[in-house]
Amino acid sequence: MIGRKLFRAIRPFISAAAVIITATVLVFAIYFTQLGEQWITFLTGILVAAILAEATRRSHAEWTLTRRTAQLSKVKSRLERETQLRKAAEKTIAASKPRLHLLDEVLPTMVAFVDKEGHCEYCNKTFLAWLNLRPEQVNHRHMRDVLGSKIYQETATAVRQSLDGHAVHYQRTQKMPDGAVYRLAVEHVPQFGEDGKVAGFYLLINDITGPGDVRASDKNESSADQNLFVDAYSEQVAGQHDSGMIRAAIENGEFTLFCQLITPLAADSERAEHYEILVRLNEEEGSMLPPGTFFPLAEKYGLMPHLDRWVVQHVAEWVAHQKHREGAPENSMHFINVSGATIADSGFPEFLQLTLLEYGVPGKALCFEISDSDLASGTGDVAEFARQVRQFGCRVALSGFGRDRVLFDLIRGFQVEFLKIDGSVILGILHDPAKLAKVTAINRVAKVIGVKTIAEMVESEETIASLAEIGIDFAQGFGISRPRPLTA
Q1: What is the mean pLDDT of residues 219-241?
Q2: pLDDT tens, position by position, 253-300
Q3: 84, 185, 288, 437: which has the highest count of C-beta atoms within 10 A?
């Protein structure tokens, strides 16, 4: 390495030295030797060739220097222009910051930003007023300290979904210290950094209490905890910690099924309508609890197979009813999520077969969704589950695909008809070239292996157009259709 650098350093002087030496030999040969005319001519030719080579080298060096100078000047001009644009953008942002801050502070919505480590990095005045806390008690404090460890554990599922890039929406009741009860709409909105990864999420809470919803507490009722969220989430999950009550909710039909349309993106696609089946739990006040609230409890007490069977039975009943409805679309599929416990349940295939026979429903009307995490943790069980349900004509879909890494190697052991591309990837394709390239690559490989693709969490016409251009087969999300009761 040192010898190479030394050679590059002295290379410009080698040609000049060769010219000087050749000229010296020629002069010496002419005046001090008896060489003939042919030798003198030969040496003169060598001298001329050396001089021309040196002149050519210097000309090339000057041309290279001129070109590099022009390139440097161009880069310098571009850098100055980008610097000016950046300064102008920073000036615009700085000018708009006070207005945005003022708007945020006067909003009636409670706003807080929680980073990926769980610390509250910002909250507005409305949020502080509802918590009845000072800024130093919230800002830069972990949400466990703000909410209390009990409530933090109860909201861990929703927080994890938000940090995975999923938007979370739900409603709940709120009992205030004076005993009044309010209804609140809560949203978790993921925030993505420049690298495309989740940097945290915004917690948005709106008071949607209607006339007559506010109730005073009984005089004999114990005083409420001063922490806003402790009472709220305690009410939200009250009475559901006991496995018997979860089982009773399943047996008594306290769950409600919703469906969300999955529509084809190609203009020449078949007329069939496909639906994602969603599960909600009815509260006493008539509102719906999201699955992130009761699924962990059902999993904890081993009741997910019971809930999954309840869903399959009611979907089959609904499909059978729809067959007799005039104008109902044919060849529709209903996508049902199944838990890892159901996948490992040896009695589920027999139950599925009997249910299909009882209601006269073809197996192709059902498509079972398996999460990529269940596939990664139990490939053998998943392959056997897929084989058995496919015997009855049912289809299999893999959900959450592409959330962490592409898992094409894992699906080689069994057949799958659909790949559902995770919403955290789909949400970023309009502003993140890496996610757009990821979706394009997934779709390209899926086409090669004969698997159809479904994009989740599609929320705008621009996203729909981009997905159609890529060649994605189906899409679902609020940009397509909002969930509606399955009985409608």
Answers
A1: 40
A2: 678 888 899 999 887 666 667 999 988 877 655 556 666 667 777 777
A3: 288
| 107-231 and 240-485 share one fold | no
Dihedral (C-alpha) 455, 459, 462, 468: value to the nearest 10 degrees? 20
CATH architecture of the domain with range 107-231: 2-Layer Sandwich (3.30)
pLDDT in tens, 407-416: 666 666 667 8
Q: Are 419 and 453 within 8 A, CB to CB?
A: yes
Which residues are within 8 A (CB) of 428 and not within 5 positions of it... i.e. 6 or more apart? Answer: 192, 196, 435
- pLDDT at residue 271, as a whole number: 61
Assigned superfamily of 240-485: EAL domain (3.20.20.450)
Judged against a pLDDT cut of 90, whether residue 487 lies above it is answered with no
Angle at 394 (CA atoms; ends 485, 438), nearest 5 degrees: 80
Extents of the domains making up the chain: 2-89, 107-231, 240-485
Residue 235's region, left for phi above 0, alpha for psi from -120 to 50, else beta, is: alpha
In 10 A of CB 284, how many CB atoms?
10
